[in-house]
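[INFO] parsing input record for Lysophospholipase L1-like esterase
[DEBUG] input buffer:
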Amino acid sequence: MKEFTQQLAGRLLRPVMRVWAASLERDFQGAPRPHDIPQAHSAGIDSDRILLVGCGPAVGWGVVSHDLALPGSLARELSGLTGRGVDVDVIESPRMSIDSVVDDIEGVLLSRYDAIVVTVGVNDALRLTPPREWRPKMAAVLDYLCRESSRTTQVLVLGIMPSGSVPFYKTRLGTVAGQHADVLNDLTETACSHSTRTAFVRFEPAPTASAERHRTADDYRAWGHMLARQLGPALDAGRLAGMDSHPAPMDPAGRERIRQRAVDALHMLDTRPEDRFDRIVALAQRLFRTESVAITVIDHDRQWNKSMVGVESREIPRASSFCSVAIEGAGPLVVCDTLADPRFSGNPLVTGDPHIRFYAGFPIEAPSGERIGALCVFDPVPRLAADVDRVLLRELALLVQRELGR
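[DEBUG] output buffer:
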């Protein structure tokens, strides 16, 4: 009888709640939110990669950059705990609901992430999504994330925020939404308990929410700290596990087809030089003090250089490309003395012009995650491993990636 009464009340209130939710959406249109590239990172060489997906806290209401919002706060907090670099990518939408999560992330290479943080449900609480619909839909989202990601990827679901923690929601209808959020949170916590790879975190109200600002950088720092406490140990455990980074084996030809599609989708091959890339190349040359620097793209059977200094040819055969080797891994490729490395000692770029003896390259990824080329510095003089700043190399590669995302 109680369940029937709740269902009846839900059917009667749902139209009212939808109208109210639409009015709230209009009120939020003038609120500050980030409009920069949806990424944040903390410096370090051996980086953890996080995907933040959702609405609400993922949107960044109240601040104007993702660095000040949850992505930047989470990256800094995690880096402080683990001592590693952290890259956070964001897929957010104020309108995201349990129905749209999978559609919003479809096509994203989830296997490259060490953790996925999902914050969804605010809109479902406001619209009183029935529990009988929420339960299977949340289970389907978790199943998709686990199936498409690495076997060591941790999936963390952040509970729906209490309606009382948002000044706009402190009304009678807001109380109804908050009570419904509690029901949905309980169902989500149960769904997450069915797998060791999924976890649920109750949302802790922000300490400084105000009607004037809605959210501040202090709020996001608090939430970043809360999430980092949960993710840090899971990321460490995932590294110790050392399992395959892909959910299922894929043949090399299949991986290359996907990678080449990402290259083609950028529409940058055989384009004219651009100042935004030339500036990064010039900066890399000054910082590493090498004769040559290039931003490269690996295309079918060639390496094509988008920007370069100290290099005569715009392209070389892929068979001779150092960068083609660099994109096989996620981290830096550093060859201190090519003549001492059997992979490169007979390379025509080593035995002939430009007589490369030192090479350092960091993979550059397309917005969809495929490694499409590299930021590389090289020289005819060998170097000691201790003299190569791998963190700086990564930072420069990330500058290139940000430009690709614009």
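[INFO] The longest helix spans residues 2-28.
[INFO] shutting down worker
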